[in-house]
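Here is my example:
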Amino acid sequence: MRSNIIVIDSRFRKNPETTVSSNFRINFNYPIWAKGYTIKQLIIPNTEYNVTEKNNAFSYFYNSNALSVVVPVGQYTITDLLGFLQVSIRTATADDTIELSQDPFTKKVVITSPTQTFTLDNNPTPTNLLAPFLGFPQNVNVSGNVLVASLFPKITGVLNYYLMSNTLSQGTSGFLGDGVETPLVCEIPMDRAAFGQYGFVQENHPTLNTYMFDREVNLQNIDIRIVNYENEEIDLKGLPITIVIRTHESDSSISKAHK
């Protein structure tokens, strides 16, 4: 079985003026008949902020008053995030003794309120989406003068992107967080790619597979879509992606391509 290398570069996509690099189609000038393929490399930028409109609400009770902080969407270190929350909570409560910090040894978040009982409202309604991000589990209310997170903060942001393609999946499907069947090709681990940096996927990465088709397929026209776990299209902010594929071709495929 012979092979061929094809490079999918979003900069050369069809209709670049009206499409984005996370949802596009690319056409090659010649037929590419294949019995299967292996993704050799996938390079994609991490453009997802770790604090988004889905996790930026922090609700709590202070002196029996229900209060909330909404953190502006952006990329935060744990120090910057706790600093913003501390200033906002001190302003709302008029209590300058409240402190939010990270224990230097355990690395867990600590909320200290010496003068009044502080209760973290971590129920689903109203949903306190930032508390789990800081290490306080969802649906577990914590109350007292010293609140210590039971888990480590998860501030890395998105853990995985997902590559979707009807052409490349050829009927193989998967399910993401929304429960809808999708033409899932593979997951793209982004947990080690800091915001603004590129995530790399190599051929020997354990999440990548070699796909074999039931019949020969022409890969001349390939659709590409990059989504998150909720099956929402990623905003790559105009940055390009590159996918390198090694096709698996029979001798008949080679001759067919040159007819």
Q: What stands out?
A: The helical segments are 78-93, 130-134, 166-169, 251-257.
